[in-house]
Design goal:
By secondary structure, this protein is mostly beta strands. The protein has a single domain (17-175), classed as Pnp Oxidase, Chain A, CATH 2.30.110. It has helices at residues 58-66, 79-86, 95-98, and strands at residues 18-19, 21-27, 30-36, 39-43, 48-53, 68-73, 103-105, 112-114, 119-131, 134-146, 165-169, 172-175. A hairpin with a 2-residue loop joins strand 11 (165-169) and strand 12 (172-175). The radius of gyration is 17 Å and the shape is globular. It starts with 17 loop residues before the first strand and ends in a 16-residue tail after the last strand.
């Protein structure tokens, strides 16, 4: 297969979908929500989750002030809300009031957990590092909230019950379809 070589990298990250999440923050009585596709787990023991946010974003300011955030994992059904959240700034409007976002405060942090999230990680910032034009916020996961109906009996996300929303770039979203058919074979464990 012949591949195209590209050295102008302005849109390099559009080649593979990323899970679209909604990151929430709370500071000085103000809630905010931001659509975030650059995020990942980076440690299991201690559980650390990374979100990448530009200093240009209002969420960045609130996150620095509060030192905590939640990562809300959404389904494709929430696509319109994700798009609305992505399309405006919390510096200009109260997104929760204007967009009718339903939520509850986290159990361990003040940042909101969205009612429509299949799962949410409540995080306290344990590190912040600048890489290029974004800051990586490392959050220790201090609580997880999850909707049992979204998961199979083996605790994996049930792709038949939930279609996770995926970001394709340039305001395009898609989802998964079908059931996971392959599982890696693991050697027997000895205790």
């Amino acid at each position: 297969m012949t591949k195209i070589v590209q050295t102008e990298l302005e849109s390099y990250y559009y080649h593979y979908p990323a899970g679209a999440t909604i990151v929430t923050t709370h500071s000085n009585g103000r809630d905010n929500a931001m659509a975030v596709a650059w995020h990942t787990a980076i440690s299991r023991d201690t559980p650390i989750y990374l979100v990448s946010i530009s200093p240009k974003r209002f969420t960045h300011k609130l996150l620095v002030e509060s030192g905590e955030f939640t990562v809300n994992f959404m389904s494709m059904d929430s696509g319109p809300l994700v798009g609305q959240i992505a399309g405006c700034s919390g510096a200009d409007i109260d997104k929760f009031a204007e967009l009718g976002i339903k939520s509850q405060p986290g159990s361990q942090v003040k940042a909101a957990v969205l009612d429509g999230a299949q799962a949410a990680y409540e995080c306290k910032v344990v590190g912040q590092h600048t890489y290029g034009d974004h800051d990586a916020f490392l959050g220790e996961i201090v609580a997880v909230q999850w909707e049992p109906s979204a998961f199979s009996s083996d605790a994996s996300l049930d792709l038949d019950a939930v279609k996770p929303i995926l970001y394709l770039g340039e305001d395009y979203y898609t989802s998964t379809t079908g059931t996971v058919e392959h599982k890696r074979d693991l050697p027997a464990r000895t205790v």
